[in-house]
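Before a colleague's protein record goes any further, I have to sign it off. What it holds is a sequence and that sequence's fold in token form. My question to you is simply how this chain folds and whether the tokens agree. Thanks in advance; the entry in question is below:
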Amino acid sequence: MILLNVVSFCAFLLSISGNFLVNCQRKSGFVLWIVSNALWVAVNFIGPTNWSQVALFVIYALLNVHGYIRWSRKQ
């Protein structure tokens, strides 16, 4: 359970940091979100698997890749 708590806390910090950076219009926020989404998927495999959350965070990661690409094209 300690591993689950550590990974969850890291995912939490990266999620909040990524959101802040995107609000500041920084593309690096998308990268943090992608990493945090991967960690949230890992949390669901370390602990009890919630397949709806796995699907949600995989879709979030794909949307973040899409956002990163769109922002890259605008610059």
The chain has a mean pLDDT of 95. Residues 2-74 form one domain.
